[in-house]
Each structure stands twice: as C-alpha cells, then as structure tokens.
Amino acid sequence: MKACIIEAFGGRDQLKISDLPKPEAGDGEVLIRIQAAGVNPVDYKIREGRLKEMFPYRFPLIPGWEFAGEVEATGHSARRFQPGDAVYAYARRPVIQNGTYVEYIALPESYVTFKPANLSMTEAASIPLTTLTAYQSLFEAGGLEKGESALILGASGGVGSSAVQLAADKGARVIALASGRNHDYLKSLGAHDVIDYERGDFIQALGEIVPNGADLVFDCHGGDTLARGMLCARPGGRLVSITEMVDEADLKQRDIRFAYVFVEPHVPQLDRIRSLIENGRFKANVTRTFALSQAAEAHAQLETGHTRGKIVLKID
Predict the structure, then answer these.
(1) Residue 62: beta bridge partners?
(2) Are 60 and 6 in contact (CB under 8 A)?
(3) What CATH fold (topology level) applies to the domain 130-260?
(4) CA distances in angstroms from 224 to 197, 228, 263, listed in the order given
(5) For residue 191, which of 247, 137, 142, 149 has the smallest C-alpha distance?
(6) From 115's CA, which of 30, 187, 214, 314 has a CA 20 to 30 Å away?
(7) What contacts 268, CB < 8 A, 6 or more positions away?
(8) Among candidates 216, 263, 210, 293, which has minimal Cα distance to 4?
C-alpha cells in the first residue's frame, strides 16, 4: 500500500511516499480503506519532533490522526461493522507510528463509528480530531452552558470553526477573534460578534461587548494571543487552551480556572457530532484538498498559521 512516511524528525522534506505492507485486521479490529485524511497542525508538530517527549513513537512513522473511509474486512470478534460500511474516526494510538496518511489502516473497532450520511468522504475526514477537540474543550473542560459568553481565539481555523458552531448550537453568545477577511465566514457559522485582531486592542473591543469579560475563553492560537486572552475572562471565569500551559500565579490572581486539553478518542461524542451534522446543525468546512503525494504542500499551507477551516488529503 502507498503511505506517506517520515524516517526521522525534521522539515517537510522528510515526508515521502513509500510502499508498506498492507495491514490485516486483528482480533477485535477492522481493516479500513482510507479515502480521505484530515491534516492538522499536530501533524507537522509530530513531524518536527515537538511531541517526542510526550508520546512514544517508532519509525517509519505515518502522520495523521483522522480519516474517513470504507470497511474492507473485520477481524475475529469484531461485530459492529460489515465490509462496505462508510466510517470515520480519530485514530490516535498510544504509540505514534501508524497514522492516517495511508491507503489502509487496521484499528480496534472501538475507535471507529459510522460517518455522517450527508457528508462526502472528504468532508467527513475533516471532522473527528478538530470537532472532538472543540467539543471536549468547550463542554468537558470549559463547562460551557446555554446563555454564557464564549470568546474563541483563533476562531477561523479547524478547531475554532468547530468551536464557533458547537458553542452557538449550545445557545452561548459566541465572540470570535479573527482577521477581518474571515468575519463573514464566522458569522455564517453562528458567531454573534467578531473582533478583528488586526484593528486595535481586542481586549478593549471585547469589553464593549461583555464589560465584565467572557465566561469562557477558548484558545486555539497560543503565544501572545493566549497571554492576552487570559485578561479577557471574567473574574471566576474559565480559560481553556489547546496550545500551551499558562502561569498558575496569574490565574490565581484573577480567580480564573484553567484547563489544557489534548483531545482523546471518544466514539460516543463522535456519534453526537454525527447527529448534529445529519440534522443540519453543524457543517464541515473543507477549504483545500491535496493528493497524498502533496502532503508537504499541505503542511506548508498549515504552517502559515492562516488556514481557514480544514485541509484534507484525498487518498483514493
């Protein structure tokens, strides 16, 4: 089978197409023909070796953690799926090696669920990692409730786009931080207010919308934006980041509860997300597609830090 692999950590030149043995479905596993794989910032961070202290890994390493495809075979005691079923999954395993930039993957069936019926394979591949990240950040770590305010930093990216939709569907007041060119896009996803970070102090702009600060600040950007976002939460509010930790002393001084989130596989949550999609309450936002052989180009686009929505590799 064709796979995009790296054999050492480094730049985009490490990505290469290789022929690897096709896996077989083991006990409790399903073998899936991947048709599309989502591309995410975590993929190039893994490629560069930034997460090598966080997760065990083995070379050759196939990047990618989300996909959509079709079940080809089932292993012993795997009974949830039949060959031909259309599925999607967040496929992170304990050891980073067998990712989704590949034609076939064998996974425990507990990682996999049916893809949304009204999405193409390309659209479905854009959902699992980013939308689970937003879901777990907003509702598990952030405790967001109907009627609360949520400021989303880095709102136009993959996770941010998902967070805007999920928070709006929950009935929260969604305030999105993004460049001016993405304002109409974010309003179409359900943002009530959009702040242009390129035009003045976004802390001051937020104060004109919610004078006491937001109930929840969700950071998808990091760096100085996260540091300033800390000043946007109301006293007693919450700050959730998927990018980095913050200084605990600053949090205590402002009485802010902080959580760092690294998304976990969760099929029941993926099923809830599928229900939202099939009922027209959430939409996929794929803005660019690349062939498997163009993975380096896809990474280059992501590394600009200015990608709207999601990028997907078409494997078939």
Answers:
(1) 98
(2) yes
(3) Rossmann fold (3.40.50)
(4) 12, 6, 23
(5) 149
(6) 187
(7) none
(8) 293
149-153 and 214-219 beta bridge pairing = parallel
Average pLDDT over residues 296-302: 97
Torsional sign, CA 130, 131, 134, 140: negative
- Least confident residue range of 104-108, 112-116, 248-252: 248-252
CB distance 46 to 4 below 8 Å: no
Q: Average pLDDT for residues 270-295, to the nearest whole number?
A: 98
Question: Where are the domain boundaries for CATH 3.90.180.10 in the chain?
Answer: 2-127+285-314
Under 8 Å between Cβ of 150 and 158:
no
The partner residues of 113 in beta bridges, in order of sequence, read 88
Please list the residue range(s) of the chain that carry CATH number 3.40.50.720: 130-260
Residue with tokens 């290469």: 16
DSSP annotation of 10 reads: -
Element at 60 (helix H, strand E): strand 57-62
Contact predicate 282/118, CB 8 Å: no
Identify each DSSP E strand in 154-213 by its residue range.
173-178, 193-196
Beta carbons of 160 and 154 less than 8 angstroms apart: yes
- State how far the Cα of 280 lies from the Cα of 304, in Å rounded to an integer: 31
Residue 91 clears pLDDT 80, i.e. is over it: yes
CATH: 3.30.9.10, 3.30.2010.10, 3.90.79.10, 3.90.180.10. Which one for 2-127+285-314? 3.90.180.10
Q: How many helices (H) and strands (E) does the chain have?
A: 10, 17
Identity at 137, one-letter amino acid code: S
Confirm if 158 and 123 have CB atoms less than 8 A apart: no
Residues 6+ apart with CB under 8 A from 136: 261, 263, 264, 266, 269
Residue 227, C-beta contacts closer than 8 angstroms, at least 6 positions apart:
246
